[in-house]
Design brief:
It holds the Pfam family Arm. Keywords: Repeat, Ubl conjugation pathway. The protein has about 170 residues and is mainly α. Helices cover about 75% and strands about 0% of the residues. α2 packs parallel to α5. The chain starts with a helix and ends in a 9-residue tail after the last helix.
Length: about 170
Amino acid sequence: MVAARFEAHVKELVDNVKSTSLETVREATSELRILAKDLDNQIIIASCGAIHPLVILLRSSDMNTQENAVTAVLNLSISNNNKVNIMKAESIEPLIHVLQTRTPEARENAAATLYSLSVFEENKIRIGNSGAIDALVELLGNGTPRGRKDVATAFLYLSTHTDNRHL
């Protein structure tokens, strides 16, 4: 019973993420960001269709919405099953956009998401070929200590694929 109510609530949040009301979108992405910290919730959130709308919001012009979306995607990427769905949602380019344009926290979380996704071999190739390396290098030079750590970890994972070593 409780699980069904939670799932219904998450479905409502996913619908709200698609709203035309900025305030509604902000509130929904903020709540999804918090809920996605829990591993059990990550599976439910993904199964309710949240990944694709959150990836779309990585290009939001509203910084709060974008920061919440990138953090929610980062939290969801902890689950290996979700990594596949995040990649299917064509997330690399929007994550690079966040790396290049936004707040330090959003940039750090985009870098952390890329390193989380790069755990899978096939993702290393796609990330390496995407132009993400240049954006990561820029964050390495101008980021916060946490951001630089996330970039270093991303480089560690990405460098294990031979094609990425020359980039």
